[in-house]
Predict the 3D structure of the following.
Amino acid sequence: MYKIGFLVSLIVLYLCLVSCQQKVDRKVDTEPSDTKPLDTKAQAIEEDFVYRLVTEKAEYGKNEPIKIYAELEYTGEKDEIEIFHSASPFSFPMVETTRNFEIGYGMDTPLLSTKLRKGEPLRAEYWGSGGYTSEDKKEYVDFISQIMNQEFPEGRYIVNGSADFYVKANEKTEQKKNYNLKLQVEFKVNNTN
């Protein structure tokens, strides 16, 4: 009899602990994510380069243009330095977190070079992105079609920006020094405005 009572007590204790744990989990899951402020500016420094990623607003209204830009600044000892990159050293892929949709950022990949003057940032603005295939679901195709027309649907967006380039570390041997700086900024689109 003692063994049965002890076993029942253990089961009741276990159920109470599991029940308490589930209540805690539910409370965390239902906590609104809108309480966290959005990061609209970010900066990374690597050696002689400063990379900045900015969205001009934390929240945009319906049909309002999305203003995002990236900057790369050279801060080294020389007056200028030549960097080598694709069509642009900057890319702006995104994730829309409400629907968990990825928004790709395609770019031509010729090898181009740009001279950066010390203290004068190179700046590029986001101009649009996205793409889909015939195998993608209609909901995704409709969403990306809006993005491609620069009509962002209501939601929360994370920009996974990068500056990808290289410099010649040694002119004689043409040895390369690669840089791939990554930053994130966030914004929301609220279609009720």
